[in-house]
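About this split. The held-out portion is used to measure sequence recovery: a designer receives only the structure tokens and must propose an amino acid at every position. Recovery is the fraction of positions where the proposal matches the reference. Here is one held-out target exactly as it appears in the evaluation file.
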């Protein structure tokens, strides 16, 4: 069930109504019942296995401890979690490269990774590790722990919530305020704008080019590369808005996952703004345990490359994902080496750089990220080469290429109005659990923005009712 679908909003409305109608002592049970029902609907075949896995992690957490046998329990549980993730997500692709009958057996060919398995596993690992580090105590309530792993708003594609922060949210919930509801609805509206009006419109043309690169012109290949950068951002940022907005209606705060990543001046800064919950997880549980930046420069570079290699493998078993992760690691490695050389030479800092210099660095980083998205989106290296070489076989007609990509005379003003509406929401949005209501938007402008948003919401509801929204890109990870 896509979070941008009419069915999900009906499900969410029923959950909110029941949640607010019942006394607070039943709230956790209501949310867990809704989350289990949501997962059964999404993956009925694997729901029991996911529940069993969650139960085993909860039990392991009760026996985990910083020292002695508790530390051994944590180690075994983390290893089992990694092996479980590998089995359901990578066993079939890995075995398929070996000749013989094994790859043809029904057992391995029928394995399908459960929805959200990567996010569930990562959160399980962070929970167990934080207990072993002595930073949190085991959660005694099985209901609350299951909510930590399976809360329906975030189970399919994150954010990857730190256990201490999310479990504290479950313990600290209090009487709902109107401001929380308003902020939750604003987040839901912004998520719909990003997903349905921008990402889904771009998806058709981008998908057509990547499905058969040889059949398209140079212009179409170039447009597909750049438009995919926009598509994946608005798709995933839209999902995060919908997840955070849904949670806010229950008084739960979820982490922000994006902070204008394409405005970054370096690849390192980009990863501090893109999928921030995953970046934090990789830093906390892979990069720092490897030694982080506390070791010599060669080891630091190795740690960076290995961390992003693991990130690439996490996204998928294909070699294209491996290259995508490696390239990001190499880009960061060169960035670290460049800064190291600058400090050795006593070169002045960037604080005194001109606006043009800042813009050039932003453009450079954006182009590097966009180039790397080719490996992320393409199905194979053959498609990567086809995309990169299409301009050498002829650029084709620009008007026809724009039409093929779905960019028409009506699309541009539609995008412009949508971006203005998103900007209006950016101005009105604050912390969903804050006592404040809005900030920095004069009354007359606020009325104008609300008028635009109301009209656009009607359009979105009509579009949603006419057909299902495209699946979120990160549902596949």
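Reference sequence for scoring:
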């Amino acid at each position: 069930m896509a979070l941008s679908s009419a069915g999900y909003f009906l499900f969410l409305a029923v959950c909110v109504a029941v949640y607010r109608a019942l006394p607070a002592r039943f709230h956790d049970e209501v949310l867990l019942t809704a989350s289990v029902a949501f997962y059964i609907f999404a993956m009925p075949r694997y729901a029991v296995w996911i529940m069993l896995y969650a139960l085993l992690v909860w039990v392991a957490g009760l026996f985990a401890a910083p020292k002695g046998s508790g530390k051994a329990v944590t180690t075994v549980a983390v290893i089992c979690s990694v092996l479980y993730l590998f089995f359901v997500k990578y066993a079939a692709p890995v075995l398929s490269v070996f000749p013989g009958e094994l790859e043809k057996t029904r057992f391995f060919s029928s394995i399908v990774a459960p929805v959200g398995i990567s996010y569930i596993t990562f959160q399980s690992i962070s929970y167990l590790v934080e207990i072993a580090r002595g930073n949190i105590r085991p959660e005694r309530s099985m209901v609350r722990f299951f909510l930590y792993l399976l809360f329906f708003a975030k189970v399919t594609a994150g954010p990857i919530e730190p256990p201490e922060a999310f479990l504290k949210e479950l313990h600290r919930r209090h009487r709902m305020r109107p401001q929380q509801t308003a902020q939750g609805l604003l987040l839901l509206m912004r998520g719909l704008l990003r997903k349905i009006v921008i990402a889904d419109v771009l998806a058709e043309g981008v998908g057509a080019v990547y499905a058969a690169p040889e059949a398209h012109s140079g212009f179409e290949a170039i447009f597909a590369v750049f438009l995919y950068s926009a598509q994946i951002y608005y798709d995933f940022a839209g999902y995060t808005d919908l997840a955070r907005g849904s949670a806010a209606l229950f008084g739960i705060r979820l982490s922000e996952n994006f902070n204008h990543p394409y405005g970054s001046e370096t690849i390192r800064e980009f990863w501090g703004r893109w999928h921030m919950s995953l970046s934090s997880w990789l830093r906390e549980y892979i990069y720092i345990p490897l030694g982080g930046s506390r070791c010599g420069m060669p080891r630091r570079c190795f740690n960076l490359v290995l961390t992003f290699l693991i990130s690439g493998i996490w996204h998928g078993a294909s070699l294209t994902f491996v290259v995508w992760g490696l390239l990001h690691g190499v880009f960061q490695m060169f960035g670290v080496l460049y800064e190291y050389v600058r400090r050795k030479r006593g070169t002045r800092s960037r604080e005194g750089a001109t606006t043009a210099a800042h813009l050039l660095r932003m453009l450079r980083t954006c182009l590097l990220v966009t180039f790397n998205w080719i490996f992320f989106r393409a199905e194979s290296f053959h498609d990567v080469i086809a995309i990169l070489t299409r301009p050498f076989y002829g650029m084709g007609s620009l008007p026809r290429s724009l039409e093929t990509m779905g960019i028409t005379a009506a699309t541009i003003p539609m995008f412009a109005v949508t971006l203005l509406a998103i900007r209006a929401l950016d101005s009105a949005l604050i912390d969903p659990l804050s006592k404040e209501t809005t900030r920095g938007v004069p009354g007359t402008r606020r009325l104008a923005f609300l008028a635009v948003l109301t009209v656009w919401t009607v359009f979105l509801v009509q579009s949603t009712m006419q057909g299902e929204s495209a699946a979120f890109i990160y549902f596949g990870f």
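Annotator remark: Residues 178-213+233-258+403-476 form one domain.
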